[in-house]
Write a structure and sequence with these properties.
DHBP synthase; binds threonylcarbamoyladenylate; 2 domains; Rossmann fold; binds magnesium ion; alpha/beta; 16 strands; 349 residues
């Protein structure tokens, strides 16, 4: 299969191209598209054959359910047997935007899309290209992140192409992605709202609308005995190829410890790199130092994280040492992704 890449500017949408992309989805094909969080790999959410193709293109286990993307709040009604008051309230507060809600599924949603579950994940993105593409595709687009299973989610179209060339019909290249981490997921299908995946919409923000929100204990703990409620969270994805370790402590101690490890790796002929804040970066004795952003620039840190992990892969880095961040605000999502990338390996000094 030839994968066609077309530019699509959020500020100057080319509707002819979007119609072409929409027709591909309607015929059961696959199109990757930009959203405000990461690039998605879209197929017709109501067509079981399309969902099967998505799993195949990603090399993803088919028990890992897909998020259904809509372009209007009203479109949720077709997907669920119950739009609760809670659901209406969060949709009003956070949609369009980086929040996915889990609701009981209707008969219209095939089990192929929900990975066999009785619930469905739904999100209405704010990215204009995503919204207009979903509309052109008939209104219901199932889309996981557009990476091969196990690789960091793509924040640039060139990374989608790297993973998906020859596997999908089209890529809509919308340039840089503003957020760079996947949407927050909140489960509203049970007795209590539960956060399944942290993102830019934080638990505090959700609690303002929903009252108390439970937090899945597996989010920051690798050794937790509990099974993550979002099936996808059990896989070690977001993973670079190199062996990764997080180091937590004061800047001085972290720099000292990482430099000690770098010296040992150099002796052993191991290619090692560092994921750093701008403030600490000059002090590391390595040629490979990736700067995520300044210590307080958490939005920038989130936006550059996956690109840094991919660059480490591209440069063949075998060991990756990363600084650790606060779990306040979006830091909760950053640390969740970093810990998963590191297989939860962290030392505290
Ligand atoms: O920001 C995002 O959400 C991006 C963009 C493309 O929208 N999509 C994304 O999809 O991150 P994916 O497939 O990479 O992650 C979806 C997560 C998985 O961990 C999956 O297990 C969980 O959502 N999920 C989907 N449906 C679910 C359900 N019914 N119950 C619990 N978890 C669900
Ligand atoms: Mg993903």
């Amino acid at each position: 299969m030839q994968t066609k890449v077309v530019l699509q500017d959020e500020k100057n949408i080319d509707y002819a191209t979007l119609k072409e992309a929409g027709d591909i989805i309607k015929k059961g094909g696959l199109v990757a598209f930009p959203t405000e969080t990461v690039y998605g790999l879209g197929g017709d959410a109501l067509n079981p054959e399309s969902s099967r193709k998505i799993y195949e293109a990603k090399g993803r286990p088919s028990d890992n359910p897909l998020i259904v993307h809509v372009c209007e709040k009203e479109d949720v009604a077709l997907l669920t047997s119950c739009v609760s008051e809670e659901a209406k309230a969060v949709m009003e507060a956070f949609w369009p935007g980086p929040l996915t809600i889990i609701l009981p599924k209707s008969d219209k949603v095939p089990y192929e899309t929900t990975g066999g579950l009785e619930t469905v994940a739904i999100r209405m993105p704010s990215h204009a290209v995503a919204r207009e593409f979903i509309r052109a595709a008939g209104g219901y687009v199932a889309a996981p992140s557009a990476n091969l299973s196990g690789r960091p989610s793509p924040t640039l179209a060139c990374y989608v192409l790297e993973d998906m060339d020859g596997r999908i019909d089209m890529i809509l290249d919308g340039g840089d992605i503003p957020i760079g981490l996947e949407s927050t997921i909140v489960d509203l299908s049970g007795d209590k709202p539960t956060l399944l995946r942290p993102g830019v919409i934080t638990p505090d923000m959700l609690e303002e609308v929903l009252g108390e929100v439970e937090i899945d204990p597996t989010i920051l703990e690798g050794n937790s005995k509990a099974r993550p409620k979002a099936p996808g969270m059990k896989y070690r994805h977001y993973a670079p190829k190199g062996d990764m370790l997080l180091i937590e402590g004061t800047s001085e101690k972290v720099v000292e410890e990482i430099n000690r490890s770098l010296a040992k790796d150099k002796e052993a002929g191991i290619k090692a790199g560092v994921i750093a804040t701008r403030e600490n970066a000059p002090f590391y004795n390595s040629d490979i130092v990736k700067i995520l952003g300044g210590k307080d620039e958490t939005d920038k840190i989130a936006a550059s994280l996956y690109r840094c992990l991919r660059e480490m892969d591209d440069e063949g880095v075998e060991k990756i040492y990363s600084e650790s961040f606060t779990t306040e605000g979006i830091g909760h999502a950053i640390m969740n992704r970093l810990l998963k990338a590191a297989g939860y390996k962290k030392i505290t000094l």
